Request: fold
Amino acid sequence: MYPPKFDYYRANSIDEAFALMGQLGDAKLLAGGHSLIPALKLRLAAPSALIDIGRIGELKGISRNGSTATIGALTTHATVAAASDLPAALTEAAGWIGDPQVRNRGTVGGNIAHADPASDLPTVLTALGATMNMRGLNGARSVSADDFFIDLFMTALGEDEILTSVDVPVDGAGTAYAKLFNPASRYAIVGVAAKVSVSGGQCTSARVALGGLTPSAVRAPSVEAALVGKALTADNIAAAAAQVGGDLDDVMGDIHASEEYRRAMAPIYVQRAVSKAAERAG
Amino acid sequence: MQSITLTVNGKSYTRDVEPRMLLVDFIRNALGLTGTNIACDTSQCGACTIHMDGMAVKSCTVLAVQADGADITTIEGLATNGHLHPMQQAFWDQHGLQCGYCTPGMIMAAAKLVENNPGITEAEIRHGLEGNLCRCTGYQNIVKAVAQAAAAGS
Reply:
Protein backbone atom coordinates (compact mmCIF):
# COMPACT_ATOMS: atom_id res chain seq x y z
CA MET A 1 0.00 0.00 0.00
CA TYR A 2 1.49 3.29 -1.04
CA PRO A 3 0.68 6.39 0.96
CA PRO A 4 -0.89 9.24 -1.03
CA LYS A 5 1.57 11.68 -2.61
CA PHE A 6 3.17 14.31 -0.40
CA ASP A 7 6.18 16.59 -0.45
CA TYR A 8 8.92 15.79 2.04
CA TYR A 9 10.97 18.23 4.10
CA ARG A 10 13.48 17.44 6.81
CA ALA A 11 13.89 19.80 9.76
CA ASN A 12 17.22 19.66 11.58
CA SER A 13 16.12 21.89 14.46
CA ILE A 14 12.91 23.04 16.12
CA ASP A 15 13.36 26.48 14.53
CA GLU A 16 13.68 24.93 11.09
CA ALA A 17 10.51 22.97 11.75
CA PHE A 18 8.62 26.15 12.66
CA ALA A 19 9.92 27.88 9.53
CA LEU A 20 8.66 24.98 7.40
CA MET A 21 5.32 24.90 9.23
CA GLY A 22 4.92 28.60 8.45
CA GLN A 23 5.62 28.09 4.74
CA LEU A 24 3.60 24.93 4.16
CA GLY A 25 -0.15 24.80 4.39
CA ASP A 26 -1.49 21.51 5.66
CA ALA A 27 1.81 19.82 6.50
CA LYS A 28 2.01 17.14 9.15
CA LEU A 29 4.95 16.44 11.45
CA LEU A 30 6.64 13.05 11.02
CA ALA A 31 8.43 11.61 14.06
CA GLY A 32 8.82 7.79 14.17
CA GLY A 33 5.95 7.43 11.72
CA HIS A 34 4.37 4.46 13.46
CA SER A 35 0.97 6.11 13.73
CA LEU A 36 1.21 8.48 10.77
CA ILE A 37 2.46 6.08 8.07
CA PRO A 38 -0.32 3.52 8.74
CA ALA A 39 -2.83 6.41 8.73
CA LEU A 40 -1.46 7.61 5.37
CA LYS A 41 -1.71 4.12 3.88
CA LEU A 42 -5.35 3.91 4.96
CA ARG A 43 -6.00 7.41 3.55
CA LEU A 44 -7.09 8.54 7.01
CA ALA A 45 -4.64 11.40 6.52
CA ALA A 46 -3.55 12.99 3.25
CA PRO A 47 -1.38 16.02 4.03
CA SER A 48 0.27 17.82 1.12
CA ALA A 49 3.62 17.72 2.91
CA LEU A 50 5.43 15.94 5.71
CA ILE A 51 7.99 17.70 7.88
CA ASP A 52 10.37 15.06 9.22
CA ILE A 53 11.39 16.08 12.74
CA GLY A 54 12.80 12.63 13.52
CA ARG A 55 16.43 13.74 13.58
CA ILE A 56 16.16 16.74 15.91
CA GLY A 57 18.59 15.81 18.67
CA GLU A 58 17.25 18.29 21.23
CA LEU A 59 13.94 16.38 21.27
CA LYS A 60 15.53 13.05 22.24
CA GLY A 61 16.40 11.47 25.56
CA ILE A 62 15.42 11.40 29.21
CA SER A 63 16.77 13.80 31.83
CA ARG A 64 16.14 14.13 35.55
CA ASN A 65 15.77 17.26 37.65
CA GLY A 66 14.96 16.50 41.31
CA SER A 67 11.68 14.60 41.40
CA THR A 68 10.80 15.33 37.76
CA ALA A 69 11.85 13.19 34.81
CA THR A 70 11.67 14.95 31.45
CA ILE A 71 11.18 12.70 28.44
CA GLY A 72 12.01 14.25 25.07
CA ALA A 73 9.21 13.90 22.51
CA LEU A 74 11.35 11.83 20.13
CA THR A 75 12.38 9.30 22.79
CA THR A 76 11.40 5.83 21.57
CA HIS A 77 9.21 3.41 23.49
CA ALA A 78 12.18 1.02 23.62
CA THR A 79 14.25 3.66 25.44
CA VAL A 80 11.44 4.39 27.93
CA ALA A 81 10.86 0.66 28.53
CA ALA A 82 14.56 0.19 29.33
CA ALA A 83 14.85 3.24 31.62
CA SER A 84 15.64 2.38 35.23
CA ASP A 85 14.43 5.51 37.03
CA LEU A 86 10.96 6.13 35.62
CA PRO A 87 7.71 5.11 37.36
CA ALA A 88 6.98 1.39 36.88
CA ALA A 89 3.60 2.07 35.23
CA LEU A 90 5.35 3.98 32.47
CA THR A 91 8.16 1.51 31.78
CA GLU A 92 5.81 -1.48 31.79
CA ALA A 93 3.29 0.26 29.53
CA ALA A 94 6.06 1.30 27.10
CA GLY A 95 7.35 -2.28 27.07
CA TRP A 96 3.89 -3.57 26.08
CA ILE A 97 3.34 -1.21 23.14
CA GLY A 98 3.18 -3.16 19.89
CA ASP A 99 6.28 -5.32 19.68
CA PRO A 100 10.08 -4.81 19.76
CA GLN A 101 10.28 -3.52 16.18
CA VAL A 102 7.47 -1.02 16.75
CA ARG A 103 9.04 0.13 20.03
CA ASN A 104 12.33 0.76 18.23
CA ARG A 105 10.69 3.36 15.97
CA GLY A 106 7.59 4.66 17.75
CA THR A 107 8.09 7.78 19.87
CA VAL A 108 6.50 9.06 23.06
CA GLY A 109 5.64 12.42 21.50
CA GLY A 110 4.19 10.93 18.35
CA ASN A 111 2.10 8.54 20.37
CA ILE A 112 0.52 11.15 22.62
CA ALA A 113 0.12 13.83 19.93
CA HIS A 114 -1.73 11.23 17.84
CA ALA A 115 -3.92 10.32 20.88
CA ASP A 116 -5.29 7.03 19.64
CA PRO A 117 -8.02 6.00 22.09
CA ALA A 118 -6.53 2.49 22.30
CA SER A 119 -3.04 3.77 23.05
CA ASP A 120 -1.35 3.12 26.40
CA LEU A 121 0.69 6.22 27.17
CA PRO A 122 -2.20 8.73 27.44
CA THR A 123 -3.72 6.53 30.15
CA VAL A 124 -0.46 6.16 32.06
CA LEU A 125 0.54 9.82 31.80
CA THR A 126 -2.92 10.86 33.02
CA ALA A 127 -2.63 8.63 36.10
CA LEU A 128 0.91 9.80 36.80
CA GLY A 129 -0.08 13.47 36.67
CA ALA A 130 2.34 14.22 33.82
CA THR A 131 2.70 17.59 32.09
CA MET A 132 3.06 18.08 28.33
CA ASN A 133 5.47 20.77 27.22
CA MET A 134 4.97 22.36 23.82
CA ARG A 135 6.42 25.16 21.82
CA GLY A 136 4.83 27.47 19.32
CA LEU A 137 5.94 30.53 17.43
CA ASN A 138 4.55 32.60 20.31
CA GLY A 139 6.52 30.77 22.96
CA ALA A 140 6.30 27.74 25.18
CA ARG A 141 3.44 26.45 27.31
CA SER A 142 2.66 23.43 29.43
CA VAL A 143 -0.62 21.55 29.86
CA SER A 144 -1.42 18.83 32.40
CA ALA A 145 -2.29 15.39 31.04
CA ASP A 146 -5.77 15.83 32.54
CA ASP A 147 -6.37 18.77 30.18
CA PHE A 148 -4.27 17.55 27.24
CA PHE A 149 -6.32 14.58 26.05
CA ILE A 150 -9.61 16.07 24.86
CA ASP A 151 -11.36 13.53 22.66
CA LEU A 152 -10.85 10.88 19.98
CA PHE A 153 -7.52 11.74 18.30
CA MET A 154 -7.88 15.24 19.74
CA THR A 155 -5.46 16.98 22.11
CA ALA A 156 -4.71 20.48 23.37
CA LEU A 157 -1.71 20.67 21.02
CA GLY A 158 -2.26 23.48 18.52
CA GLU A 159 -1.65 23.00 14.79
CA ASP A 160 1.14 25.56 14.96
CA GLU A 161 2.80 23.94 17.98
CA ILE A 162 5.32 21.14 18.50
CA LEU A 163 5.18 18.84 21.51
CA THR A 164 8.73 18.98 22.84
CA SER A 165 8.75 16.90 26.03
CA VAL A 166 6.76 15.34 28.84
CA ASP A 167 7.45 15.93 32.54
CA VAL A 168 6.72 12.94 34.73
CA PRO A 169 6.74 13.19 38.54
CA VAL A 170 9.02 10.58 40.13
CA ASP A 171 7.89 10.76 43.74
CA GLY A 172 8.11 7.26 45.18
CA ALA A 173 4.39 6.50 44.90
CA GLY A 174 3.42 2.98 43.78
CA THR A 175 2.38 2.84 40.14
CA ALA A 176 1.22 0.10 37.77
CA TYR A 177 -0.42 -0.47 34.41
CA ALA A 178 -2.77 -3.35 33.64
CA LYS A 179 -3.90 -4.02 30.11
CA LEU A 180 -6.29 -6.26 28.24
CA PHE A 181 -4.50 -6.67 24.91
CA ASN A 182 -5.94 -6.87 21.46
CA PRO A 183 -4.18 -10.13 20.52
CA ALA A 184 -3.15 -8.94 17.04
CA SER A 185 -2.25 -5.27 17.38
CA ARG A 186 -1.37 -5.27 21.10
CA TYR A 187 -3.43 -2.11 21.48
CA ALA A 188 -5.44 -1.79 24.71
CA ILE A 189 -9.04 -2.98 24.70
CA VAL A 190 -9.02 -1.85 28.32
CA GLY A 191 -5.97 -0.22 29.90
CA VAL A 192 -5.81 0.97 33.49
CA ALA A 193 -3.03 2.92 35.17
CA ALA A 194 -2.91 3.53 38.91
CA LYS A 195 -0.75 5.62 41.19
CA VAL A 196 -1.17 5.30 44.98
CA SER A 197 0.62 6.56 48.05
CA VAL A 198 0.35 4.75 51.37
CA SER A 199 1.15 6.04 54.82
CA GLY A 200 0.45 4.36 58.18
CA GLY A 201 -1.31 1.50 56.41
CA GLN A 202 -3.76 3.82 54.67
CA CYS A 203 -4.02 5.14 51.15
CA THR A 204 -3.25 8.86 51.26
CA SER A 205 -3.66 9.64 47.58
CA ALA A 206 -4.83 7.79 44.50
CA ARG A 207 -4.97 8.55 40.81
CA VAL A 208 -6.60 6.02 38.49
CA ALA A 209 -6.99 6.46 34.74
CA LEU A 210 -8.55 4.33 32.03
CA GLY A 211 -8.05 4.14 28.30
CA GLY A 212 -8.92 1.87 25.42
CA LEU A 213 -12.61 1.96 26.17
CA THR A 214 -13.38 5.69 26.03
CA PRO A 215 -12.67 8.25 23.25
CA SER A 216 -9.75 9.59 25.28
CA ALA A 217 -8.04 8.64 28.53
CA VAL A 218 -10.16 9.50 31.58
CA ARG A 219 -9.70 9.64 35.35
CA ALA A 220 -11.90 7.53 37.60
CA PRO A 221 -12.76 9.97 40.43
CA SER A 222 -15.24 7.62 42.14
CA VAL A 223 -12.59 4.89 42.37
CA GLU A 224 -9.97 7.36 43.60
CA ALA A 225 -12.31 8.72 46.30
CA ALA A 226 -13.19 5.20 47.42
CA LEU A 227 -9.51 4.31 47.86
CA VAL A 228 -8.28 7.33 49.81
CA GLY A 229 -8.39 6.86 53.58
CA LYS A 230 -8.68 3.08 53.33
CA ALA A 231 -6.22 0.28 53.88
CA LEU A 232 -5.45 -1.13 50.44
CA THR A 233 -6.73 -4.64 51.17
CA ALA A 234 -8.06 -6.88 48.42
CA ASP A 235 -11.63 -6.29 49.61
CA ASN A 236 -11.29 -2.51 49.73
CA ILE A 237 -9.66 -2.41 46.30
CA ALA A 238 -12.41 -4.60 44.84
CA ALA A 239 -15.09 -2.38 46.39
CA ALA A 240 -13.45 0.75 44.97
CA ALA A 241 -12.97 -0.86 41.54
CA ALA A 242 -16.68 -1.73 41.44
CA GLN A 243 -17.39 2.04 41.36
CA VAL A 244 -15.69 2.51 37.99
CA GLY A 245 -18.83 2.10 35.87
CA GLY A 246 -20.12 5.45 37.13
CA ASP A 247 -16.97 7.20 35.91
CA LEU A 248 -17.37 5.94 32.34
CA ASP A 249 -20.13 7.66 30.43
CA ASP A 250 -18.98 7.11 26.86
CA VAL A 251 -17.78 3.53 26.41
CA MET A 252 -17.03 2.46 22.85
CA GLY A 253 -17.92 -0.83 21.17
CA ASP A 254 -16.25 -2.02 17.98
CA ILE A 255 -15.27 -5.20 16.13
CA HIS A 256 -12.69 -6.00 18.80
CA ALA A 257 -14.95 -5.78 21.86
CA SER A 258 -18.51 -4.69 22.62
CA GLU A 259 -19.37 -1.88 25.01
CA GLU A 260 -20.79 -4.45 27.46
CA TYR A 261 -17.57 -6.48 27.41
CA ARG A 262 -15.39 -3.44 27.95
CA ARG A 263 -17.60 -2.32 30.84
CA ALA A 264 -17.37 -5.79 32.36
CA MET A 265 -13.57 -5.84 32.09
CA ALA A 266 -13.02 -2.32 33.46
CA PRO A 267 -13.37 -3.12 37.21
CA ILE A 268 -11.19 -6.23 36.84
CA TYR A 269 -8.32 -4.28 35.32
CA VAL A 270 -8.79 -1.43 37.81
CA GLN A 271 -8.43 -4.03 40.56
CA ARG A 272 -5.25 -5.46 38.99
CA ALA A 273 -3.62 -2.08 38.43
CA VAL A 274 -4.44 -0.76 41.91
CA SER A 275 -3.34 -4.01 43.63
CA LYS A 276 0.01 -3.97 41.84
CA ALA A 277 0.49 -0.25 42.55
CA ALA A 278 -0.34 -0.85 46.22
CA GLU A 279 2.30 -3.62 46.42
CA ARG A 280 4.85 -1.27 44.92
CA ALA A 281 3.88 1.52 47.31
CA GLY A 282 5.20 -0.81 50.04
CA MET B 1 11.90 13.10 -6.12
CA GLN B 2 14.35 13.01 -3.28
CA SER B 3 17.93 11.79 -3.46
CA ILE B 4 18.91 9.36 -0.72
CA THR B 5 22.16 7.58 0.05
CA LEU B 6 22.21 4.55 2.30
CA THR B 7 24.26 1.46 2.97
CA VAL B 8 22.60 -1.89 2.46
CA ASN B 9 24.48 -5.07 3.32
CA GLY B 10 27.75 -3.15 3.31
CA LYS B 11 27.25 -1.52 -0.09
CA SER B 12 26.45 2.16 -0.59
CA TYR B 13 23.56 3.13 -2.87
CA THR B 14 22.37 6.55 -4.03
CA ARG B 15 18.94 6.69 -5.63
CA ASP B 16 16.17 9.18 -6.37
CA VAL B 17 12.95 8.13 -4.69
CA GLU B 18 9.42 9.43 -4.39
CA PRO B 19 8.91 10.66 -0.79
CA ARG B 20 6.02 8.22 -0.34
CA MET B 21 8.10 5.16 -1.26
CA LEU B 22 8.23 2.69 1.62
CA LEU B 23 11.63 1.35 2.65
CA VAL B 24 10.50 -2.22 1.95
CA ASP B 25 9.57 -1.27 -1.62
CA PHE B 26 12.90 0.47 -2.04
CA ILE B 27 14.76 -2.64 -0.86
CA ARG B 28 12.72 -5.00 -3.05
CA ASN B 29 12.10 -2.94 -6.18
CA ALA B 30 14.92 -0.39 -6.38
CA LEU B 31 17.66 -2.74 -5.11
CA GLY B 32 16.16 -6.08 -6.19
CA LEU B 33 16.66 -7.62 -2.74
CA THR B 34 13.48 -9.67 -2.58
CA GLY B 35 14.37 -11.71 0.51
CA THR B 36 12.54 -9.10 2.61
CA ASN B 37 8.86 -9.97 2.28
CA ILE B 38 5.69 -7.91 2.38
CA ALA B 39 2.72 -9.61 4.00
CA CYS B 40 0.29 -7.61 6.17
CA ASP B 41 1.69 -4.20 5.24
CA THR B 42 0.19 -2.85 8.48
CA SER B 43 3.17 -3.15 10.92
CA GLN B 44 1.74 -6.24 12.58
CA CYS B 45 3.21 -9.37 10.95
CA GLY B 46 6.94 -8.63 10.89
CA ALA B 47 7.68 -10.32 7.52
CA CYS B 48 9.44 -7.13 6.40
CA THR B 49 11.77 -6.92 9.43
CA ILE B 50 15.27 -5.64 8.66
CA HIS B 51 18.07 -4.09 10.73
CA MET B 52 18.34 -0.32 10.49
CA ASP B 53 21.25 1.30 12.36
CA GLY B 54 21.53 -1.79 14.54
CA MET B 55 17.85 -2.14 15.42
CA ALA B 56 15.15 -4.48 14.15
CA VAL B 57 12.46 -2.43 12.40
CA LYS B 58 9.47 -3.09 10.17
CA SER B 59 10.42 -1.72 6.77
CA CYS B 60 6.77 -1.42 5.66
CA THR B 61 6.39 1.38 8.21
CA VAL B 62 9.50 3.39 7.38
CA LEU B 63 9.72 5.74 4.41
CA ALA B 64 12.79 5.30 2.23
CA VAL B 65 13.56 9.01 2.79
CA GLN B 66 13.65 8.39 6.55
CA ALA B 67 16.41 5.85 5.95
CA ASP B 68 18.64 8.39 4.18
CA GLY B 69 22.11 7.89 5.66
CA ALA B 70 21.14 4.67 7.45
CA ASP B 71 23.10 1.44 7.65
CA ILE B 72 20.77 -1.40 6.73
CA THR B 73 21.09 -5.17 6.84
CA THR B 74 18.59 -7.44 5.12
CA ILE B 75 18.35 -11.22 5.24
CA GLU B 76 20.70 -11.34 2.21
CA GLY B 77 23.41 -9.65 4.27
CA LEU B 78 23.27 -11.86 7.35
CA ALA B 79 25.56 -14.67 6.22
CA THR B 80 29.29 -13.93 6.26
CA ASN B 81 31.88 -15.43 3.89
CA GLY B 82 29.48 -18.12 2.78
CA HIS B 83 28.67 -19.19 6.32
CA LEU B 84 25.09 -18.94 7.52
CA HIS B 85 24.48 -16.70 10.51
CA PRO B 86 23.93 -18.90 13.62
CA MET B 87 20.27 -17.89 13.60
CA GLN B 88 19.89 -19.01 9.97
CA GLN B 89 21.66 -22.27 10.78
CA ALA B 90 19.39 -22.81 13.79
CA PHE B 91 16.23 -22.31 11.71
CA TRP B 92 17.65 -24.88 9.27
CA ASP B 93 18.58 -27.37 12.00
CA GLN B 94 15.31 -27.08 13.92
CA HIS B 95 13.13 -26.73 10.81
CA GLY B 96 11.78 -23.46 12.16
CA LEU B 97 9.49 -22.91 9.20
CA GLN B 98 6.86 -24.44 7.01
CA CYS B 99 6.09 -22.30 3.95
CA GLY B 100 8.99 -19.96 4.72
CA TYR B 101 7.24 -16.68 4.04
CA CYS B 102 7.65 -15.30 7.57
CA THR B 103 11.15 -16.75 7.91
CA PRO B 104 13.34 -13.82 6.79
CA GLY B 105 11.53 -11.49 9.18
CA MET B 106 11.60 -14.09 11.97
CA ILE B 107 15.34 -14.55 11.57
CA MET B 108 16.07 -10.81 11.46
CA ALA B 109 13.92 -10.14 14.55
CA ALA B 110 15.31 -13.16 16.42
CA ALA B 111 18.92 -12.28 15.63
CA LYS B 112 18.52 -8.90 17.38
CA LEU B 113 16.56 -10.45 20.22
CA VAL B 114 19.41 -12.83 21.05
CA GLU B 115 22.10 -10.22 20.43
CA ASN B 116 20.41 -7.88 22.95
CA ASN B 117 19.74 -10.63 25.51
CA PRO B 118 22.29 -13.47 25.24
CA GLY B 119 20.84 -15.51 28.13
CA ILE B 120 17.32 -15.26 26.76
CA THR B 121 14.67 -17.57 28.27
CA GLU B 122 11.92 -19.37 26.36
CA ALA B 123 9.31 -16.97 27.76
CA GLU B 124 11.40 -14.00 26.63
CA ILE B 125 11.75 -15.52 23.16
CA ARG B 126 7.98 -15.88 22.87
CA HIS B 127 7.37 -12.34 24.16
CA GLY B 128 10.14 -10.95 21.94
CA LEU B 129 8.70 -12.50 18.79
CA GLU B 130 5.26 -10.94 19.35
CA GLY B 131 5.82 -8.77 16.31
CA ASN B 132 6.34 -11.71 13.95
CA LEU B 133 3.44 -13.86 12.85
CA CYS B 134 3.64 -17.37 11.38
CA ARG B 135 0.35 -18.50 9.84
CA CYS B 136 1.37 -22.04 8.83
CA THR B 137 1.83 -23.75 12.10
CA GLY B 138 2.68 -23.36 15.72
CA TYR B 139 5.74 -21.53 16.89
CA GLN B 140 7.39 -24.52 18.57
CA ASN B 141 10.21 -25.08 16.11
CA ILE B 142 10.77 -21.35 15.69
CA VAL B 143 11.22 -20.99 19.45
CA LYS B 144 13.51 -24.05 19.49
CA ALA B 145 15.59 -22.53 16.71
CA VAL B 146 15.99 -19.22 18.54
CA ALA B 147 16.94 -21.09 21.72
CA GLN B 148 19.56 -23.09 19.78
CA ALA B 149 21.07 -19.93 18.32
CA ALA B 150 21.10 -18.31 21.78
CA ALA B 151 22.88 -21.35 23.23
CA ALA B 152 25.36 -21.20 20.34
CA GLY B 153 26.14 -17.63 21.39
CA SER B 154 24.87 -16.03 18.21
